[in-house]
């Protein structure tokens, strides 16, 4: 290509000082970013993709990191610049946006001031000029009513809007290169779609190059011209995105692509299906197998939720008067049968987690009925609650904080068994050994502590703990959301194995439509505390009826390069809030029968 | 903002009422009959009965409380047993002295503690950090009385720069007033400076590793702007709260320091009153201190709101 690259990275090696020794975390990475081009660096946690981006901006702590190789930005070697010269590059020739929009803005300054700062720093603008330019930028990133929001503080914006502010800030000095480090990972899927669209449009308008760091193959397929795949600090493959997706050479690339949940991959399949497993050493694929016939329909449901309502008071003012309620769950009803997986899907604030927690009485619902394995959950006393929890257990999202760091994993798994006095200490230990094997770990790991395990292994331990009481129902609250794709696939496969073997019923709470499609028998879509559509998996995914369900599915990035450059109509729709004034009466809802078991809310 | 302050003051009223009950019961719970103490050698039942009637000690306790409270509200804190001066007048004489001392001590504490804390956090695990921590450890572990005596020896006795004791009102002779309070304020401030330094350091460390500081660096801002403008103002929030709480420590320290430097302040008043069983004075002093505490916390809360936009929503 005739164009000189904007960014040219050669043999980049970054090392960190730890315990007196230099350990390289990124080794020998080389790639170019040409004008107007989008290059994605894709990889799982620990692959060194973020360190690569921070190395380019030289944002790593100077005393504890060492960057070798060459990084040419517009033909200037960034590694040869003094720190002072580098400050003239950051936020000016190259700028950066980050993963966490909620914490990436300074909470005590107005957003206007934070954007103006870039303009006065790099462009030498006066205050008035910077203010006018900032308002223009805010309009450019489609923040409604931009002029009036100049003096607002970050906490007055939602996550998606904050990410727009971050983008406005990054674009302020018209950089040639934008580095986006997982900019949409923390956002809800419909908001993610908006931000991806925005980046694409602005890239064209500003004729800017983008280096996009992500773990999400779907996002890569949609946005990147070329892709660099990283694995354990090394660049394993680089090339045009099409080629990587269709003719990926490295086994890891193939493993990564195989593990990516694809929306629509379940068409024509009747039962939940395991993810295909690719051997990273050889690149061979094992075909996925279905999990047939576990559901015991026609019998009494193991879990029946009727007209569940959960509201939390919102208090304000000095006397703490109730000024409203969060209507977290509103008149929710569903059944779950033995051996079945029902998924609750929806975006932040839709009440899916509150529903899960209500079933274990981890939060107190306001009204309704929950029957589980013969227990009338909402009328149990303390001893009854303890007994009930033998029948239902929960697996949480964060495997790092949901295990006690000071307990050996053997004791963690055995603890529920011991506390419920189900047997002797010896039996408990035996049980823990057995469970570790069941979740694919080794019983020799009993005496290790949580920090000695990886995220995926910890989630397996959490699953083993949940199984130690032989529950009939497991509430899995975003249990695979924090895991890397390949690990996510493994843990999903494990859950499916366990369901087949132990005839478990799962209430699978997730925002990830592609995973849900893979593992569910039935799906319930939640919006503002209500189920707006419920039905068999195939019915929901192949024939969605409700507008919101359709919107949700359209927003999911699919790892298919044919979708590159796809535009959803940019809208500024925000997720709506379930906070209502005191005395609000939710309207009575009616549902339309679409097909066998498929219901959609019509009013 | 005025509405917020008014509301906070309204909320302080029940707190003050509860404190007044405690202060009142102090007198009732202490052993010994105040009338016997007052009458001295006189044991004539008629006199005792007259005194009891005069001080309303025959009324139900609840009535006595309201009578006492009524006095307080109209500015009548009672009469000191020892000096026969009205308690309010005594407090009015001594309080300004201690306020001056406390403010100067707080100035020293903040002027030493905050810069040292910032330096220690920015140059974490370097010689600067170790030095600052060493100084803080000294400040925490050197007792006030020892430091006070050493300073008197060095500065007053050997060098003759400042007077060793005594006090002059700031309204009469400002220069001499500052001179007499400089050393005690410094002694009083050092212990607090150490605590403020440690808190500033840990608060700054937390802020410096925040995502928004990374954003600020990615914008190409200078280290000075990042530390002073983006980090320090965030780090200040917990320090404001802590400084208000340190006010109590300041008062406890003042008791000792005023003794060493023979300053006729509030601290000395407390000590004298307790030793002399001068209950009316003790009550007045405790009540004043409580009001002072509430005011300091109010100031801290107002500062907190001014510094933290997230709290400004409902004003």
From TrEMBL, chain A:
<keyword id="KW-1003">Cell membrane</keyword>
<comment type="function">
    <text>Part of the ABC transporter complex GsiABCD involved in glutathione import. Responsible for energy coupling to the transport system.</text>
</comment>
<dbReference type="GO" id="GO:0015833">
    <property type="term" value="P:peptide transport"/>
</dbReference>
<dbReference type="InterPro" id="IPR003439">
    <property type="entry name" value="ABC_transporter-like_ATP-bd"/>
</dbReference>
<dbReference type="InterPro" id="IPR017871">
    <property type="entry name" value="ABC_transporter-like_CS"/>
</dbReference>
<comment type="subunit">
    <text>The complex is composed of two ATP-binding proteins (GsiA), two transmembrane proteins (GsiC and GsiD) and a solute-binding protein (GsiB).</text>
</comment>
<keyword id="KW-0472">Membrane</keyword>
<feature type="domain" description="ABC transporter">
    <location>
        <begin position="314"/>
        <end position="553"/>
    </location>
</feature>
<dbReference type="GO" id="GO:0005886">
    <property type="term" value="C:plasma membrane"/>
</dbReference>
<protein>
    <recommendedName>
        <fullName>Glutathione import ATP-binding protein GsiA</fullName>
        <ecNumber>7.4.2.10</ecNumber>
    </recommendedName>
</protein>
<dbReference type="InterPro" id="IPR027417">
    <property type="entry name" value="P-loop_NTPase"/>
</dbReference>
<dbReference type="Pfam" id="PF00005">
    <property type="entry name" value="ABC_tran"/>
</dbReference>
<dbReference type="GO" id="GO:0005524">
    <property type="term" value="F:ATP binding"/>
</dbReference>
<dbReference type="InterPro" id="IPR003593">
    <property type="entry name" value="AAA+_ATPase"/>
</dbReference>
<keyword id="KW-0378">Hydrolase</keyword>
<dbReference type="GO" id="GO:0055085">
    <property type="term" value="P:transmembrane transport"/>
</dbReference>
<dbReference type="Pfam" id="PF08352">
    <property type="entry name" value="oligo_HPY"/>
</dbReference>
<dbReference type="InterPro" id="IPR050319">
    <property type="entry name" value="ABC_transp_ATP-bind"/>
</dbReference>
<keyword id="KW-0997">Cell inner membrane</keyword>
<dbReference type="GO" id="GO:0016887">
    <property type="term" value="F:ATP hydrolysis activity"/>
</dbReference>
<dbReference type="InterPro" id="IPR013563">
    <property type="entry name" value="Oligopep_ABC_C"/>
</dbReference>
<keyword id="KW-0067">ATP-binding</keyword>
Automatic annotation (TrEMBL), chain B:
<feature type="transmembrane region" description="Helical">
    <location>
        <begin position="9"/>
        <end position="26"/>
    </location>
</feature>
<dbReference type="InterPro" id="IPR045621">
    <property type="entry name" value="BPD_transp_1_N"/>
</dbReference>
<feature type="transmembrane region" description="Helical">
    <location>
        <begin position="281"/>
        <end position="307"/>
    </location>
</feature>
<keyword id="KW-0813">Transport</keyword>
<keyword id="KW-0472">Membrane</keyword>
<comment type="similarity">
    <text>Belongs to the binding-protein-dependent transport system permease family.</text>
</comment>
<keyword id="KW-1003">Cell membrane</keyword>
<dbReference type="Pfam" id="PF19300">
    <property type="entry name" value="BPD_transp_1_N"/>
</dbReference>
<feature type="transmembrane region" description="Helical">
    <location>
        <begin position="99"/>
        <end position="123"/>
    </location>
</feature>
<dbReference type="InterPro" id="IPR035906">
    <property type="entry name" value="MetI-like_sf"/>
</dbReference>
<feature type="domain" description="ABC transmembrane type-1">
    <location>
        <begin position="95"/>
        <end position="304"/>
    </location>
</feature>
<dbReference type="GO" id="GO:0071916">
    <property type="term" value="F:dipeptide transmembrane transporter activity"/>
</dbReference>
<keyword id="KW-0812">Transmembrane</keyword>
<keyword id="KW-1133">Transmembrane helix</keyword>
<feature type="transmembrane region" description="Helical">
    <location>
        <begin position="177"/>
        <end position="196"/>
    </location>
</feature>
<dbReference type="Pfam" id="PF00528">
    <property type="entry name" value="BPD_transp_1"/>
</dbReference>
<protein>
    <submittedName>
        <fullName>ABC transporter permease</fullName>
    </submittedName>
</protein>
<dbReference type="InterPro" id="IPR000515">
    <property type="entry name" value="MetI-like"/>
</dbReference>
<dbReference type="GO" id="GO:0005886">
    <property type="term" value="C:plasma membrane"/>
</dbReference>
<feature type="transmembrane region" description="Helical">
    <location>
        <begin position="235"/>
        <end position="261"/>
    </location>
</feature>
<feature type="transmembrane region" description="Helical">
    <location>
        <begin position="130"/>
        <end position="157"/>
    </location>
</feature>
């Amino acid at each position: 290509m005739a164009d000189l690259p904007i960014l040219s990275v050669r043999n980049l090696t970054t090392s960190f000082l730890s315990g007196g020794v230099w350990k390289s975390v990124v080794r020998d990475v080389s790639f170019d970013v040409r004008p107007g081009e989008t290059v994605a660096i894709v990889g799982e946690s620990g692959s060194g993709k973020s360190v690569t981006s921070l190395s380019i901006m030289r944002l790593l702590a100077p005393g504890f990191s060492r960057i070798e190789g060459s990084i040419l930005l517009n033909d200037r070697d960034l590694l040869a610049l003094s720190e002072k010269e580098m400050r003239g590059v950051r936020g000016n020739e190259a700028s950066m946006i980050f993963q966490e929009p909620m914490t990436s803005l300074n909470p005590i300054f107005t957003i206007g001031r934070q954007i103006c700062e870039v303009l006065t720093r790099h462009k030498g603008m006066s205050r008035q000029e910077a203010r006018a330019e900032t308002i223009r930028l805010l309009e450019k990133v489609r923040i409604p009513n931009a002029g009036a929001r100049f003096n607002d503080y970050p906490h007055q914006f939602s996550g998606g809007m904050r990410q727009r502010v971050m983008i406005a800030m990054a674009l302020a000095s018209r950089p040639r290169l934008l580095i986006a480090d997982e900019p949409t990972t923390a956002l809800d899927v419909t908001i993610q779609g908006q931000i991806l669209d925005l980046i694409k449009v602005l890239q064209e308008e500003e004729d800017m190059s983008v280096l996009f760091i992500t773990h999400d193959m779907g996002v890569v397929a949609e946005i990147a011209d070329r892709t660099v795949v990283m694995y354990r600090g090394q660049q394993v493959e680089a090339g045009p995105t099409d080629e990587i997706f269709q003719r990926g050479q490295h086994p890891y690339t193939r493993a990564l692509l195989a593990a990516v949940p694809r929306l629509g991959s379940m068409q024509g399949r009747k039962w939940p299906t395991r993810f295909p497993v690719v051997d990273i050493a050889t690149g061979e694929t094992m075909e996925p197998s279905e999990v047939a016939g576990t559901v015991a329909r026609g019998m009494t449901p193991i879990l029946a939720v009727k007209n569940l309502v959960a509201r939390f008071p919102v208090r304000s003012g000095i006397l703490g008067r109730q000024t409203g309620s969060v209507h977290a769950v509103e008149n929710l009803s569903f059944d779950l049968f033995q051996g079945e997986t029902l998924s609750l899907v929806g975006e932040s604030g839709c009440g899916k987690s509150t529903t899960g927690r209500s079933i274990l009485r981890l939060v107190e619902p306001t009204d309704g009925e929950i029957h589980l394995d013969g227990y009338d959950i909402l009328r149990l006393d303390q001893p009854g609650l303890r007994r009930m929890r033998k029948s239902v257990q929960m697996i949480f999202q964060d495997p790092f904080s949901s295990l006690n760091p000071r307990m050996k994993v053997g004791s963690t798994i055995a603890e529920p068994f011991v506390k419920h006095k189900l047997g002797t200490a010896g039996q408990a230990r035996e049980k823990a050994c057995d469970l570790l094997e069941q979740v694919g770990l080794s019983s020799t790991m009993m005496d290790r502590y949580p920090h000695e395990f990886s995220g995926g292994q910890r989630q397996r331990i959490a699953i083993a703990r949940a199984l130690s009481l032989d529950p009939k129902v497991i509430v899995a609250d975003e249990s695979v959301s924090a895991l890397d794709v390949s690990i996510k696939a493994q843990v999903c496969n494990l859950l499916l194995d366990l369901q087949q073997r132990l005839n478990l019923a799962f209430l699978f709470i997730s925002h990830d439509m592609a995973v849900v499609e893979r593992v569910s028998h039935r799906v319930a879509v939640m919006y503002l505390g209500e189920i707006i559509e419920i039905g068999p998996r195939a019915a929901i995914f192949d024939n969605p009826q409700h507008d919101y369900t359709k919107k949700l599915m359209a927003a999911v990035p699919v790892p298919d390069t044919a979708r590159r450059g796809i535009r959803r109509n940019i809208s500024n729709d925000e997720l709506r809030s379930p906070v209502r004034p005191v005395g609000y009466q939710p309207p009575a809802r009616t549902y339309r029968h679409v097909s066998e078991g498929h219901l959609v809310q019509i009013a | 903002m005025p509405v917020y302050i008014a509301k906070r003051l309204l909320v302080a009223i029940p707190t003050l009422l509860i404190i007044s009950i405690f202060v009142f019961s102090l007198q009732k719970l202490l052993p010994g009959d105040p009338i016997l103490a007052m009458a001295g050698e006189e044991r004539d039942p008629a006199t005792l009965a007259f005194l009891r009637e005069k001080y309303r000690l025959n009324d139900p306790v609840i009535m006595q409380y309201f009578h006492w409270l009524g006095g307080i509200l109209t500015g009548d804190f009672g009469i000191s047993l020892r000096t026969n001066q009205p308690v309010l007048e005594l407090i009015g004489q001594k309080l300004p002295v201690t306020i001056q001392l406390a403010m100067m001590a707080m100035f020293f504490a903040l002027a030493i503690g905050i810069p040292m804390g910032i330096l220690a956090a920015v140059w974490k695990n370097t010689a600067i950090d170790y030095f600052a921590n060493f100084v803080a450890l000294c400040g925490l572990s050197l007792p006030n009385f020892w430091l006070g005596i050493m300073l008197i020896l060095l500065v007053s006795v050997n060098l003759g720069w400042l007077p060793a004791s005594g006090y002059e009102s700031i309204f009469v002779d400002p220069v001499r007033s500052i001179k007499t309070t400089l050393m005690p304020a410094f002694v009083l401030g050092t212990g607090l400076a150490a605590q403020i330094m440690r808190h500033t350091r840990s608060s700054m460390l937390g802020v410096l590793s925040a995502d928004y500081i990374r954003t600020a660096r990615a914008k190409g801002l200078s280290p000075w702007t990042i530390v002073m403008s983006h980090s320090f103002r965030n780090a200040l929030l917990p320090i404001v709260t802590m400084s208000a709480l340190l006010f109590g420590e300041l008062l406890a320290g003042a008791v000792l320091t005023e003794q060493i430097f023979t300053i006729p302040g509030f601290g000395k008043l407390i000590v004298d009153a307790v030793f002399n069983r001068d209950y009316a004075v003790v009550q007045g002093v405790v009540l004043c201190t409580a009001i002072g505490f509430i005011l300091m916390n109010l100031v801290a809360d107002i500062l907190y709101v001014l510094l933290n936009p997230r709290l400004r929503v409902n004003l």
